[in-house]
Write a structure and sequence with these properties.
The chain has 15 helices and 24 strands. The chain has about 500 residues and is of the alpha/beta class.
Length: about 500
């Protein structure tokens, strides 16, 4: 059995990072109501029933309509508040074609050039939610044909001004903004006919100038690239042939690459942003490829995917926006609503490794997509009950401080080690130990008197997680369970296979 010693004298300090690193998205379509990804069946989630996609027609049928989300729901607000302050991003593909109808003049029908309508009450619900968690608001704005009715076809700021002014006057100002969600994926729904990289560069520059002239405290964020499967990142070996059979369908959706766009932007962003999903979910696998098999979700290559992507984008950030923080403004296991295992304990390994490695590479924020929508939400989107990822992030936010440390000789195959200062401000360190081996336990030395918070599950595909052996669940009145540690007596403990442990020393 391998052994790791938790020796704080061998640690080196890497950096201090944003305490709001674990933040999240609320999709605009959640706010307005509209289509989003259809949930998987219980059998598909457990792995007992395959998800079969027969082509593009099936992919379109993988969505269904949802009513506007009640962001004032007591359980939703209480669970979000328990996570602590966060950046809240309201965006997504639907934000690019949403009309802001704060006067109630449309009757719910989107004007020409738009596809959906945001009402005053719906936006007030967003602002109240952000205020209730002591959060910070990031948005993207519309860029569809409806905001290009200008003589030269350039972007018209009138709708954006309405959104920014209303939010400021309500007392919950927008604090950061991307111009458009995923601008490299241009469609008739999110941009006018004939729109390309040159037009986008022109309009993002205009948007950033608009912000700096009228709302100088707002952070300009970009380029919001979304490039799944970029060179230098790991790929599935189990699905290698199936992914190859899908060809370049995903790449063909790109109107341009972020690397090609950056030299054309004159107004530099304050924050460098991109999106990262490890792959494409089962909903689009046979059409778009880039799908990982569930059997690979605890493999080192899969767990290194987000870290590899960050390493790929870092040189671009350094060249064009040196020293700017990096915001991953959408991140989850897989695009198109998440994989069948996104709502299970199996996905917690990815979440732990992404958060742990990100702070070692740079300072910034990861916006999980989403808080409470589709299968990748931290909360179930039907009743807002917590999923395993929620419990992990709750522990992360309570335990992990802002100072990042690294012991270069600690990580090995199947074992991932991340170290932070203590969130409670006391001297000492918090060690996050991710044993992603399915079969091998590991001995940890140097832990006498430490506190252990250990997550496990009866099965990796379980929708429940255990803390020190006890299933985590809300009480009868939605009260959170006691998240008490076990005190370690003795100088060593054994971490079982498929376990995720915080040790406070």
């Amino acid at each position: 059995m391998p052994t790791i010693s938790l020796d704080a004298t061998r640690l080196r300090h890497v950096r201090a990072v944003d305490p709001l690193m674990a933040s999240y998205n609320i999709e605009m379509t959640e706010v307005t109501g509209g289509t989003f990804w259809k949930r998987y069946t219980p059998g598909q989630i457990s792995g007992a029933e395959p998800f079969v996609l027969r082509g593009m027609a099936d992919m379109r049928n993988s969505m269904e309509p949802y009513p506007p989300k009640n962001l004032r729901n007591e359980r939703l607000v209480a669970l979000a508040k328990a996570l602590g302050p966060a950046w809240v991003r309201v965006s997504g593909s639907w934000a690019s074609n949403t009309y802001y109808d704060f006067d109630g003049t449309t009757g719910g029908k989107a004007p020409e050039g738009f596809s959906s309508v945001l009402t005053r009450d719906q936006w007030v619900g967003v602002l109240d939610f952000v205020k209730s968690i002591n959060g910070h608001l990031l948005v993207s704005v519309a860029n569809s044909a409806g905001v290009h009715n200008t003589p030269d076809g350039s972007w018209d700021p009138a709708q954006a001004k309405l959104l920014f002014d209303f939010s400021r006057d309500y007392g919950v100002p927008i604090e950061a903004a991307e111009f458009m969600n995923e601008p490299n994926i241009l469609t008739p729904d999110n941009s006018p006919a004939g729109y390309g990289m040159a037009e986008y560069a022109r309009d993002q520059d205009a948007f950033f100038r608009f912000l700096r002239e009228n709302y100088p405290n707002v952070l300009c964020v970009g380029p919001c690239a979304s490039e799944i499967g970029i060179p230098g990142t790991p790929h599935s070996t189990v699905n290698a042939q199936a992914n190859a059979d899908a060809g370049d369908a995903l790449a063909s959706l790109d109107a341009f690459k972020a690397a090609d766009l950056m030299p054309h932007l004159k107004e530099r962003a304050d924050v460098f942003s991109y999106h990262w999903y490890n792959g494409i979910s089962e909903r689009g696998a046979s059409v778009l490829g880039h799908h990982w098999d569930a059997s690979e979700a605890m493999n080192d290559d899969y767990l290194a995917s987000a870290e590899s992507a960050c390493r790929t984008y870092l040189p671009m950030r350094d060249e064009y926006l040196p020293n700017a923080p990096i915001w991953i403004t959408e991140s989850a296991d897989a695009g198109l609503g998440g994989d069948t295992w996104a709502s299970t304990y199996l996905d917690v390994f990815r979440t732990a490794c992404e958060l742990g490695s990100f702070g070692e590479l740079t300072n910034g924020v990861i916006f999980h997509n989403t808080l409470a929508s589709s299968d990748y939400g931290w909360l179930d989107f039907a009743d807002f009950s917590p999923r395993p990822n929620y419990w992990f992030v709750l522990l992360w936010n309570r335990l992990m401080g802002a100072d990042v440390y690294r012991a270069d000789d600690q990580t090995r195959e199947g074992m991932h080690v991340y170290v932070r200062s203590r969130k409670d401000g006391r001297d000492g360190t918090v060690w996050l130990l991710v044993n992603s081996s399915k079969t091998e336990a590991i001995t940890i030395d140097g832990v006498n008197g430490g506190w252990l918070y250990q997550l496990t599950a009866d099965d990796p595909h379980s929708r429940d997680a255990r803390l020190n052996g006890t299933v985590l669940a809300l009480g009868p009145n939605d009260e959170l369970p006691e998240l008490d540690p076990a005190t370690i007596s003795g100088d060593s403990i054994t971490l079982p296979p498929a376990s995720i442990s915080f040790i406070v020393l």
